[in-house]
Design a protein that fits this description.
five-stranded antiparallel β-sheet, alpha+beta, globular, about 45% helix, single chain
């Protein structure tokens, strides 16, 4: 299992950004805006080595999308074999994960919650149930929330309170319970605060 089950606020404090988007992480970053640990207060962020900066960027992307180190390495190698810019290919492949599409559609509050929805069989792609979070959608695919899931209180709360609009590469339909992949996501449409070029430099060594 690639799912991270440890303390999320510690990871967010170490990387200096809210990874999973929870209130607890936001509060921790506001109250303790320094890395965790005994020497967190005295650690100077400005003196980080080049390797550490690259490693942190990779960890940001890996934790944000919920991949294990092996999965992330394999995905990078796939991106490197494709034509085009490796960093852009990598982020595009991450965005096309089914659990991320569920998150982008506004049905789940966080990507881990979206991963759970997919794993429990609440999502269909082109009319067929898919329970693999890493399933990669393609242009023209229609992702829908199954009837039972539409009645779930948590889904209704997420849609009403979060009111998250899908990105431009997704088109909402069926009263907000379906999204169509209009095109593959472009870099400017991906708002994850990750410097992908540093990840490419890290793996290129």
């Amino acid at each position: 299992m690639a799912r991270y089950t440890g303390p999320r606020a510690r990871v967010s404090r170490r990387l200096g950004t809210n990874i999973w988007g929870t209130k607890g992480e936001t509060k921790a970053l506001e109250n303790r805006p320094y890395p965790p640990g005994e020497h967190g207060r005295t650690r100077r962020r400005g003196t980080s080595s080049e390797y550490l900066v690259q490693l942190q960027e990779k960890q940001k992307a890996r934790f944000t999308y919920g991949l294990s180190e092996k999965q992330f390495r394999n995905l990078y190698e796939q991106a490197a074999r494709r034509p085009g810019v490796t960093g852009d290919n990598m982020l595009q492949m991450l965005e096309r994960r089914l659990d991320n599409v569920v998150y982008r559609a506004g049905w789940a509050a966080t990507r881990p919650q979206a991963r759970q929805f997919v794993g429990h069989g609440h999502v269909s792609v082109n009319g067929r149930r898919v329970d693999i979070p890493s399933f990669r959608v393609r242009k023209g695919d229609v992702v829908t929330l199954r009837d039972k899931a539409r009645q779930m209180v948590v889904v209704q709360w997420n849609r009403d309170v979060l009111d998250r609009m899908p990105p431009l590469w997704l088109e909402s339909g069926d009263e907000g319970f379906a999204v169509t992949v209009l095109q593959l996501p472009e870099r400017e449409q991906i708002d994850v605060p990750v410097r992908e070029q540093l990840i490419v430099e890290l793996y290129s060594k």
